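Hi Y.,

Following your request, here is the sequence exactly as I used it, all 309 residues.
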Amino acid sequence: MPEATPAFQFLTESHDIGKRLDRMIQERIPSFSRARIQEWIRQGLVRVDGRAERPSHTMRSRETVQVIPAEAPPLRATPEAIPLTILYEDNDVVAIDKPAGMVVHAGAGVHSGTLVNALLHRFETLSGAGGEHRPGIVHRLDRYTSGVLLVARNDVAHRALAAQFSSRQVEKVYLALVHGKMKGDHGRIERPIARDPVRRTRMTARLASGRPAWSEWQVLRRFQAFTYLEVRIGTGRTHQIRVHLSSIGHPVVGDTLYGAPSRIEGLPPLARYFLHAHRIRFRQPTSGAELSVESPLAAELRDWMKGLL
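Below is the corresponding structure, written out as tokens. Let me know if you'd prefer a different format.
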């Protein structure tokens, strides 16, 4: 048993039985991420009836869980020789074609292989306005979303781009394949988005509270059981497109977090979700000229969709 006094101690209740250890702890102390809690468990800072267990340990009746939280290690961005596809570049801005699976910057449980690490290796200087471990990062894409992402090369450009994003002057267009047949050829979803109070890794559009968000969609192609969409968003909330489309009964293909099935009969597994940042339109920070940068649909998504024909 660690010598330090546990900061948290729980006795499992009936509703905890059968849950994973890491999930049960995160429900009790939701201010900490699941990844952080899993790290504590691996470090021996969590004990179940005095024993070290794995994060996947299944909780039983009347087990005592003790937790000694540890400080998160400082995040440092380290240059790494990771290939990058550049869609556009000038003295102020770089537009990257981010592949699915790449995390934008270091966070809980992820310290290498990030876009920031690749950028630091490729470019000598980037904006520092976003913080020491997020140089150049003005906005983000989810880990398993591919497509175009803007990076600021200096602080002046960063502030100018950030102002465009906050005032909703940046046009962001995505491509998505969803389950089911959309009614109509276009539509608008305007629902606030908030953190799911039960599953903290999710967002939800089913509460009256939350941050305002809107997404507009247009059908590009229809398949027997799927609809291929172009989606334009005017706000940039966490998981926005995924949450909005799921909220109307059409989850993005491959997005099991928001209701998509993990397997589709007759089709190969898709090791990501079918969401791609296709186009971004903004004003060049110095000249003010309007720029539009496009990323073609990722090859793995294009090839997977051929199986629907």
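The chain has a mean pLDDT of 90.

Thanks again,
Q.
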